[in-house]
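Today's session is about reading a structure prediction critically. Students often jump straight to the picture, but the first step is always the sequence itself: look for stretches that repeat, for charged clusters, for runs of hydrophobic residues. Only then move on to the predicted structure, which in these notes is written as discrete structure tokens rather than atom positions. Here is the chain we will use throughout the hour.
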Amino acid sequence: MAIISRGFRSRRPPVDPSRVPPGQYVTNDFPVLSAGPTPHTPLDKWTFTIRGLVDTPKSWTWDEFARLPHEEVKVDIHCVTKWTKLDTMWSGVAIDTLLHGIDIGKSKYVTAFCDGGYTTNVPLADLVNGQAWIAVGYDGAPLHPEHGGPARLLVPHLYFWKSAKWVRGLELRDHDVPGFWEVNGYHDYGDPWKEQRYQGD
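Below is the predicted structure for this chain, in token form.
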């Protein structure tokens, strides 16, 4: 007797295991995980600011931000809750573009700050050289609020909590300051390939 009936097979396509960090599983869904209610900032009130250890703070309104050069990126993302989503499509402005022309002095770390009070910390070296963006679009449409719209940080090589939703700016520092989840026990860096989920991993 056949164990698997004709046509009764998994719809999930084969996955290259080299793209899936240890302890992760691949999903076609886009789960929504948030630490609080979803903010809904009107676009005419929205600004994005770079401040801290810079020569002069710089801010953009939504319209000014929209006129910056945007990039389309296809990346894999990895959540600390163990799901991985492959080939996600985003549009946004590279952090390199935002920092261009700004004297960052001796900055080595960044705190991303967001609507709702969320923060997360990332080494500055992980945001430059084409590694991170402020994403405003997903899968060909404006980024939905439940996924961090109108804008979220996108740092795909780290666990996805570092890709802060509803981001409103970056504060550059010469020292590391743990953010919301990092203070509450998550790993300070969050490399999915080293399973750096919690402090001590």
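Discussion point for the tutorial: DSSP finds three helices and eleven strands in the chain.
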